[in-house]
Amino acid sequence: MTKSAGDYFSKPFPRRKSVGVNVGGVTVGGDAPIVVQSMTNTDTADADSTVAQVAALARAGSELVRITVDRDEAAAAVPRIKERLERIGINVPLIGDFHYNGHKLLTDHPGCAEALDKYRINPGNVGFKAKRDKQFSQIIEMALEYDKPVRIGVNWGSLDQELLTHLMDENQENGSPLTAEQVMREAICQSGLLSAQRAEELGLGRDKIILSAKVSQVQDLIAVYTDLAQRCDYALHLGLTEAGMGTKGIVASAASMGVLLQQGIGDTVRVSLTPEPGGDRSREVQVSQELLQVMGFRSFVPVVAACPGCGRTTSTVFQELAQDIQGHIRDNMPIWREKYPGVEGLNVAVMGCIVNGPGESKHADIGISLPGTGEEPAAPVFIDGKKAVTLRGPNIANEFKDMVLDYIEKRFGTGEASASDDELSSDVA
Question: Which annotated residues bind [4Fe-4S] cluster (predicted)?
């Protein structure tokens, strides 16, 4: 029987079977949900700023946080950072990002080796020529000593040049059946797989190994991970490196990882956005969550559906109302996750006119259809698919916000209103 496009895309393909890895109490791979990861951009030697940013990322929903460990001062600060985070109730697993000198830092700073929950190493710069295997082995031995998992993270910007040259020469001898781009992709896959094989030979179990293969072009990422997923059952970390700033980085990351996730590939994700000067680092966490949520893999925050607006909706009331509710929800989710179990599955609709307003509102848990240009100044509110009330007058927005908070409390809470909830109803749309 011929399949339609809907047969393929109505739901994701089954998740690729991978070996589960315990990272500081968070499982990556296996049957676990796809995990959101982020990375600080502070100087790790500055414990104050690093603690603050790790805490912000964790509160935003990052389930793993990677920090740079590039020199003695940074390595020495790691135990203090871990201790201070635990003291303020932030128990997010910390991953140490090592390049060039990881073997030395882990050996010289046992407190760092112990405090970290995972080590990330790059086979392209773990060591060069005769030192490569020795220094790689040292890191794996430290992982074995402290019972830590390792992410072997290949990056095309620091790819093993000896391996790449070897594969290029071999390809030329075979009459160049592959393009230079295909050889580069193969080198990325082989670099990760050969390193993982070597780690296993040294005694590191498959349940301690995560692979990543970072590139900066969408089609390259899709091709490399599709190939890698077929050649191993290691847990895979997805991420488009050097994705860029703003909408470009968001679109490129979502386009590439969305295709892979749809195929069941990927156990943990990071959206590597270049922050604007002074920008919020946790933005990449929000984008990762939204990617997983809109694709139906996980629920992190209640969804607020709002129409895009047109000539029927010259009033900005529905825009301001949707923004107020969405912002309040996101700001309060760290508290609401504990106070209102299951609230992340809530759907709210804020619609701007009669065309799609009533229908969209009926599909939401709670929704409002505001009057469009020229429409009767009345706003029907639907709760659990049924019309509950019609709001009228100048205070429609605030009345609906109160109804949303009341719905959350009745459905997910204990019946006790919170001070933070009262703040939303006092805002003027």
Answer: 307, 310, 353, 360
Arithmetic mean of pLDDT over the chain: 92
Q: Detail the residues annotated as belonging to a binding site for [4Fe-4S] cluster.
A: 307, 310, 353, 360
**How long, in residues, is the chain?**
429
User: Are the C-beta atoms of 175 and 213 separated by less than 8 Å?
Assistant: no
pLDDT (tens digit per residue) in 228-287: 999 999 999 999 998 888 999 999 999 999 999 999 999 999 999 998 888 899 999 999
Per the model's pLDDT, the better-predicted residue between 334 and 69 turns out to be 69
Contact 11, 262 (CB under 8 A): no
Q: What is residue 425's predicted lDDT score, i.e. its pLDDT? A: 41
- Residue pair 67/81 in contact by the 8 Å Cβ criterion: yes
- The pLDDT score that the predictor gives to residue 394 is 87
- Residue 338 CA to residue 132 CA, distance in Å, equals 47
Burial 84-95 (b: 16+ CB within 10 A, else e): bbeeeebebbbb
DSSP-derived 3-state class of residue 416: coil
Q: What is the mean pLDDT of residues 404-420?
A: 75
Contact 105, 75 (CB under 8 A): yes
Q: Kindly list the structural domains of the chain, giving each domain's residue range(s) and its CATH number in brackets, ordered by start.
A: 21-295 (3.20.20.20), 303-411 (3.30.413.10)
128's CB contacts (< 8 A; 6+ apart) are none
CA dist., res. 91 & res. 26, Å (int): 11
First CA to last CA across the chain, in angstroms? 53
Q: Is 389 exposed, middle or buried (0-12, 13-18, 19+ CB in 10 A)?
A: middle
Tell which phi-psi region holds residue 408, choosing left (phi > 0), alpha (psi between -120 and 50) or beta: alpha
Question: For residues 159 and 20, what is the distance between their CA atoms, to the nearest angstrom?
Answer: 27
Phi then psi dihedrals of residue 386, to 5 deg:
-120, 145
Report how far residue 406's alpha carbon sits from residue 96's, in angstroms, rounded to the nearest whole number. 44
Token pair in block for residue 28: 């990556």
> What DSSP line would sit under 330-361, residue for residue?
HHHHHHHHHHSTTGGG-EEEEE-STTTHHHHH
